[in-house]
Write a structure and sequence with these properties.
mainly alpha, single chain, 0% strand
Length: 125
Amino acid sequence: MIRHDVWETVVRNKQFLGVWFVTMCLGATTLMPFNVIITAIDFFSSIYGNSFSFIINFSINLPVIFVMLLLLKFGDRFSLRAKILFPLFGDCIFLILIPVISIYFSPEVSFPIVIVASMFTGTNQ
């Protein structure tokens, strides 16, 4: 919960509002793909089996480590807008495609595609 006096300072200084908004967008971009896929874990488990939750957690979270290390090294070469908007739109596209692929293709064909798509959502974080 945000303290009232801190929030008044943020509102008075317009620069803090920009920082707050950017931080909120980065947080949403980081948490959205993981929460969307985990929320639908019963749907995916009915198609791919019970081990899907472990595999999907691994395939989303493993690329995050490598991308964060790359951003620490090369992140200053990209604008803040590019670091927020491209991952957000990429996540939205892949998160729409994952259930569509799961529905319209057989589990043998769609499983590797879903895993690779979930890895891309991990790299977008």
